[in-house]
Each structure stands twice: as C-alpha cells, then as structure tokens.
Amino acid sequence: MDGIGMSRRRFIELGRDTAAVTLATAAVPGAALAQTGGRPVARGRPMPDDVSLPSTPPRSKRSDSVGYAIVGLGDYALNQMMPRFSQSPRSHIAALVSGNPDKLRRVGDAYGVPADARYSYEQFDRIAADRRIDAVYIVLPSGLHADYAVRAFTAGKHVLCEKPMALTSADCKRMIAAGRRANRRLMIAYRVHFEPHNIEAMALMQRRAIGKIRFVRTEQLSRTDPSSRPVENWRIDPSLAGGGPLEDYGIYGLQAALYLTGEMPESITATTFQPANDPRFAQVFASVASQLTFPSGAIAQLMTSYDSSGSNIAHVRGDTGALIMDAATGYQGHKMRLEGRERRDLSLGDPTVQFARQLDNFSDAIRDGVAIRTPGEMGLRDVRLMEAIYAAAETGRAIRLTPDGRIPR
Ligand code: NAD
Questions:
Q1: Is 323 helix (H, G, I), strand (E, B) or coil?
Q2: Which residues does the annotation mark as catalytic?
Q3: Distance in Å, CA 180 to ligand 1 centroid
Q4: How far is the CA of 70 from the centre of ligand 1 (A)?
Q5: Hey, whose CA ends up nearest to atom 43 of ligand 1?
Q6: d(CA 199, CA 205)
Q7: Shortest-distance Cα residue to atom 9 of ligand 1
Q8: In this structure, which of 80, 100, 213, 383 has its CB flanked by the most CB atoms within 10 Å?
Q9: Of all protein residues, whose CA lies closest to atom 44 belonging to ligand 1?
Q10: Ligand 1: which residues within 6 Å by Cβ?
Q11: Residue 342 — φ and ψ, nearest 5°?
C-alpha cells in the first residue's frame, strides 16, 4: 500500500462502481461529524463572518416564477447565489433549509422568506407538502449532495445541485435514477457554462480560431489556512470532500479541458501529493496533477492544489495560435487573449451574469422543458473522470477509458 493517510485504493474501488458508499468509511477524526449508517449528516454552522444580507426583501416575481428551497446557508449560497436570484426573472427564493436557527431567522427575514418556509435538516422531508417549493438548490458540502438530491426527488421537487455532483459515480447514478423515477429535472450548477468569456472560448475553439488544438494547460490552485482542521473545514474531511482539491477546484480545469477541446479523453495518467506531518493533508491530497490524452492527439495537463500560491488559468495552444484565459473560471475578473492570426484581447462583458443565467436555464427547463446545459449526466461524466485520475495515480499507469469516460472492467 502507499502509506498515505487516505487509501487511494479506495478511490479505485469507487471508480469501478463497486461501492455504493462515499468515502465516509475513511478515517474521520473523532467527533468531527455526526455519522448515520456510515454517511455524513448535515449539521448547522454559524453565519459566516463576511455576509451582507439585503436591507429590504426582494420584490415578488411573475406568476410562473420557480420557487427554490436553498439547502445549506454557507459562504457560496449567502455571498454569491442568493443575491443573484433578484437578477433571474423566473426564479425566487421560496424556502430555506439550515441547521442553525439563528441563521434561518436572520437570512429568512432579510430575504422575506415566511417563517413557515424555514426548515431544519431534520424537517427537510416536509418540503414535499410545501407547494411554494418547486425546486431544491443543494449548496451543502459535497458528500451530502447525493442524499439530499434523492430526498428532494422523493419529495417531488426538481434539483439544482452544486459541483461536484457527488463524491462517487455510484452516488451520481443514484441521483439520476431518483430524478427519473420522480419525473423531475436535475441540473449541476456548473456556472462557467453561462459565463460570457467561457462561452466565447468554446465557440472560438469550435471554429478553430487557433487551428488544431495541441495542448491545454489548466491550473486551479489555492492555499488552505495552515490552522485548518477537518472539524472546522469540511474541505479537508474526506467524507465530505473526497480527495480534496480535485473535486472542489480542479474540477473547473477538468471541465475546461473537455469544453475547450470538445473531446473526451481516451487515456489518463496522474500523480497525487500528500505530505507527511501536515495536519491539513492527513486525509486529503495537497495536490493532484493529471495528463489527459484525447483522440485528436491533443494533450491536457491539469494541476490543482490546496497548498500552492493561487492561480486559475486555462491556456490552449493550437497549431496556429493560442487562447490564454487568466483568470479563467472565477466569479469575476476574467481576462482572455487570443494569439496568432486573430490576435486580440477579448473583453466580453460582465462575468457575474453567470449566476443568474444558470438559474434562468433551470427555471426555463422546469417551466418550458428546455434543455439543461449542464445536466446530471455531465456531473456523472466528470466524477467518473476524477475516479480515473485517482486510479491512474494509484497504479502509476495510464488508465485507458471507454468513449463515455468509464474505466473498462
Ligand atoms: P461552506 O462551508 O461555506 O457552507 C456549507 C454549508 O453547509 C454551511 O451552511 C454549513 O452549515 C452547511 N453544512 C451542513 N452540514 C454540514 C456538515 N456536516 N459540515 C459542514 N457544513 C455543513 O461551503 P461552500 O463554500 O458554501 O460550499 C458549499 C457547496 O457549494 C459545495 O458543494 C461546494 O463545492 C459548492 N461551491 C460551488 C462554487 C461554485 O462556484 N459553483 C463555489 C463555492 C462552493
């Protein structure tokens, strides 16, 4: 075995869909999490420090607006997504689900959510009887996505789920099956597919603005606070975060490699790094680097880390030019430059429209049946590829994939 704190072999087993459980069975320190039947459970946390709530509740929307229950009132929900509902004409916040009564009260009051539409995690299944709720938006730690999605479908609601869709392909399949059984829609909240620079980058690559793609390089790098402990930071707890940076941040680089090349990889090699004696990385990887080879011959090198100075880039080099995206996939501050025959800087408007346009797509899918740009099948595809990355790192060999990204048995 490899001698690291977390079993990489476990990822390979999961990659082969042999286990219908998450990494909750990995060693999780003491009372870090309440566990039920080997799976992590949702629990309340205090309000993040840096939240600004609306001073007046948003005004009511048109009559066919989709009512969302926000599940998990953490940093991303409170600071990014909830304020953007006001920019999506057909989406509104109808209910809240949180384990912290103080947060439920303060956030509920600020957003004008009625007191009887504020639920604790224990009361979650009661949403079935709440006709104000059409859809559930799951913004919980990643290891909780699958269970809450299945429960939401069982309650007859549509599901918008944050990335990564789940920690295992088995859980992704469970979510998709539950959605089909309930005849409800499932979308993965890959906001970048609604961001103007990334949309234009996809179009440029499709029309061969830099010729044939030869190389893609992505870096999604950040540094975890050295004082972090799993009990306070779910991102370094494998039952909630899987292997760590790849599922959380590297997934953007993986996605970019796919939507920029327009291909699925046929082979993957990878390396993981987990330093000894660093409590932050006792159970998750510090860094993951992988190389994907595509049928066209294009090669993508993806780097992601929780222990590096920050970077968020996607560079594509073709046989006649290059596309440089820096920052590539953030909330804002995107910059994009085309080199070669069509050399120019591309400024394509406000990246922050991505949040509301994502909501528009899901609400239109629910009301009018339009196609979802980022469906559950895309989330499953990406989780399968991440499993293949871990399998490649574990074996030290190239993993060859089927055209839909599976590891052949
Ligand atoms: P966060 O820690 O700020 O918030 C997590 C929320 O879940 C908190 O309200 C917390 O109370 C609640 N929670 C319930 N059970 C918990 C448990 N057992 N342990 C810890 N917290 C628990 O995290 P976040 O940054 O808001 O991330 C939430 C989800 O959103 C994740 O799936 C993450 O991948 C995703 N996310 C997406 C983006 C994006 O750009 N699309 C950005 C950040 C986060």
A1: strand
A2: 163, 252
A3: 26
A4: 12
A5: 76
A6: 10
A7: 74
A8: 383
A9: 76
A10: 33, 40, 42-45, 48, 72-77, 99, 139-142, 144, 162-163, 189, 191, 234, 240, 248
A11: -105, 35
Which of the four pLDDT bands, split at 50, 70 and 90, describes residue 13?
A: very low
Q: Which atom of ligand 1 is nearest to the CA of 237?
A: 19
Cis peptide before 164 (omega within 30 of 0): yes
User: Rounded to 5 degrees, what are φ and ψ at 325?
Assistant: -115, 115
Atom in ligand 1 nearest the alpha carbon of residue 163: 34
The model's pLDDT over 149-205, given as tens digits with 9 standing for 90+, comes to 999 999 999 999 999 999 999 999 999 999 999 999 999 999 999 999 999 999 999
pLDDT tens digits for 289-324? 999 999 999 999 999 999 999 999 999 999 999 999
Question: Residue 301, Cα to own-chain centre: how many angstroms?
Answer: 20
Q: How far is the CA of 192 from the centre of ligand 1 (A)?
A: 18
5 pLDDT more than 90: no
- Out of 140, 148, 195, mutate this one to test ligand 1's pocket (max ligand atoms within 8 Å of CB): namely 140
Question: What local confidence, expressed as pLDDT, does residue 2 receive?
Answer: 31
Amino acid occupying residue 251: I
**Which residues have a Cβ under 8 Å from the Cβ of 317 and sit 6 or more positions away?**
210, 213, 214, 215, 216
Three-state secondary structure call for residue 137: strand
Q: Report the C-alpha gap between 358 and 374 in whole angstroms.
A: 9
**Alpha helix locations (H) across 133-210?**
145-154, 169-182, 196-206
pTM over 0.85: yes
Sign of the dihedral defined by the CA atoms of residues 158, 257, 18, 141, in that order: negative
345 C-alpha to ligand 1 centroid (Å) = 35
